[in-house]
Design goal:
globular, single chain, alpha/beta, Adenine-specific Methyltransferase, domain 2, Rossmann fold, eight-stranded mixed beta sheet
Length: about 300
């Protein structure tokens, strides 16, 4: 993938725009198999790989409904331009109060266009819902957010995903990751990008150590290839789940330095070593390295942690 990656119309923390080239190289040719994503999120990976057949799942009902509405034609680029132009003008005239009016409207009666408006005008592109399932990210404090050029950018992104889904056999489904992974068969490739434990865990409905353990067990027992995205380490700490779940010679851990610009807290905006974990060998790309040796800190903590 030598050209710049395609960017989806939906933003969320942890988006893999800068890693899609490596993921595509790992995945290789799918032939007749499906591309299965239990955590499709923004949809950026599938958008760039453009598999012929895909099962794209998420527990976030609003993301799935948004892409189903594009797939069905209920949402199109013309309607998006008209909606964002109208709502953007109101935001400019009224200011911050109008953002919260739309947020309340969406939380009482969710719809995909309001979801897009909130997603592209909330603070720092963070996607977050409270325990009651209500979108609770504050305003970005830019009443001029929906300038004509910005609207055109979003419209072009909607056009791109519309074109891709129109020629592809993709199913968008609201599902728990356990359900979606259970559908995988030989010849499929499963790409899992779960919430990162200890980091962005309030994306929609949380992420626990039990979830992490269940995911590891399900992936390890798959009859097909898998690629797992997670964080490996940063300057402050190391993800001990990588050592706990993926130290076997049956798995490969590849790392690449990455920087996340999105995060509600300042301490979450540091350079990070990203991990791509597979159950198959892979010729390493430029800038990626197989993590064959853990840090001294991990070695010191290993015996204690693995006994838990």
């Amino acid at each position: 993938m030598s050209s710049p990656p395609l960017v989806p119309p939906i933003k969320c923390q942890g988006i893999k725009t800068k890693l899609v080239a490596e993921i595509a190289n790992m995945a290789g040719e799918l032939s007749d198999g499906r591309w299965v994503e239990p955590f499709c999120g923004s949809g950026v990976v599938a958008l760039n790989l453009q598999p012929k057949r895909a099962l794209l799942c998420d527990s976030n009902i609003h993301i799935i409904q948004f892409y189903k509405d594009i797939q069905s034609g209920r949402i199109n680029s013309i309607g998006v331009r008209e909606f964002l132009s109208e709502q953007g003008a109101k935001l400019l005239a009224i200011g911050e109060a109008y953002f919260y009016e739309v947020r309340e409207r969406f939380n009482n009666a969710p719809n995909s266009l309001d979801f897009l408006f909130l997603n592209r005008s909330c603070f720092n592109g963070v996607m977050r819902f409270n325990r009651s399932g209500r979108f609770n990210v504050p305003f970005c404090r830019k009443p001029e957010r929906f300038a004509p050029a910005y609207i055109t950018k979003i419209v072009n992104q909607v056009q791109t995903i519309s074109r891709v889904v129109s020629v592809s056999d993709w199913e968008f489904r609201v599902a728990d990751f356990r359900e979606s992974i259970a559908t995988a068969v030989a010849g499929d490739v499963v790409y899992a990008d779960p919430p990162y434990a200890g980091r962005h865990t309030d994306y929609f409905n949380g992420w626990s150590e039990l979830d992490e353990a269940d995911l590891a067990d399900l992936l390890a027992s798959l009859p097909c290839k898998f690629i797992l995205s997670t964080w490996h380490s940063n300057e402050f700490r190391t993800n001990l789940q990588v050592e706990k779940n993926w130290a076997s010679d049956n798995f490969h851990v590849f790392t690449k330095a990455h920087y996340y610009h999105v995060g509600a807290a300042e301490e979450l905006r540091h350079p990070m070593l990203e991990a791509l974990i597979t159950n198959f060998g892979y010729h390493e790309a430029v800038g990626m390295h197989e993590a064959r040796q853990q840090s001294l800190f991990v070695e010191q903590q290993r015996a204690r942690y693995l006994s838990v």
